[in-house]
Design a protein that fits this description.
This protein is of the alpha/beta class and about 200 residues long. It has a single domain, classed as Spore Coat Polysaccharide Biosynthesis Protein SpsA, Chain A (Alpha-Beta Complex), CATH 3.90.550. Helix content is about 40%, strand content about 20%. It has a 7-stranded mixed sheet, with helices on both faces. Helix 3 crosses helix 5.
């Protein structure tokens, strides 16, 4: 097994009033859109949640073909979710995504996987130097060690993990725009207005 997809779904959205990943969008859960988009590109799919109750809800919604794992530490941060996923992943390379990006581009993900060969990470970067560590591909073992070391030092953000990785390649969003002209791959559903916009986009497509 060479490639794993980890979808982080541990957060409860106060702005949306419920578990974000299970929100219905175009007749299926938000997290299912993400999984379906990358399914053909990976050998293993994993969703990371933060509690046993969440785990049961996601297992019911997603069925047996998607592994659902609970955060290994009781800290509400994507870094713990990433650590949990890297620890359980079988693939040499791991795609890390959040559960709220329903328009994730297969072409962009495929390129990130290709660029990660002989690297420890490939991370999109905007012209203002903002990076997208939750929309990136990592070499699993080094990423696990980096996440574990960051948490061990009391750091809770994804940048702390990235800072502990060598051989990181950054790919400009200007390059990715050649594959995804509107860069919808980075569109997040964070608020009710975002959900309405996503519904409109699906209706147009």
């Amino acid at each position: 097994m060479n490639r794993t997809a980890i979808i982080l779904a541990g957060g409860f959205s106060s702005r949306l009033g419920q578990d974000k990943g299970l929100l219905q969008l175009a007749h299926k859960p938000l997290v299912r859109h993400v999984l379906d988009a990358v399914s053909a590109l990976v050998d293993e799919k994993m969703v990371i949640v933060s509690s046993p109750t969440q785990a049961e809800n996601y297992k019911k919604a997603l069925g047996p073909k998607v592994a659902v794992r609970i955060d290994v530490e009781d800290k509400r941060t994507p870094l713990v979710g990433a650590l949990t996923g890297f620890k359980g992943a079988c693939g040499k390379y791991t795609l890390l995504l959040s559960c709220d990006v329903p328009f994730v581009s297969r072409d962009v993900v495929s390129l990130l996987f290709e660029l990660c060969i002989n690297r420890n990470a490939v991370i999109p970067r905007w012209p203002n130097c903002y990076i997208e560590p939750l929309h990136a591909v990592y070499c699993t073992k080094p990423a696990y060690e980096a996440a574990r070391n960051a948490l061990g030092e009391g750091k809770l953000n994804m940048q702390a993990m990235v800072d502990r990785l060598r051989y990181v390649r950054y790919v400009s969003t200007l390059v990715l725009q050649q594959l995804d002209p509107e860069l919808r791959t980075f569109f997040n559903v964070n608020m009710p207005l975002d959900l309405k916009k996503a519904e409109r986009l699906f209706a147009i497509d």
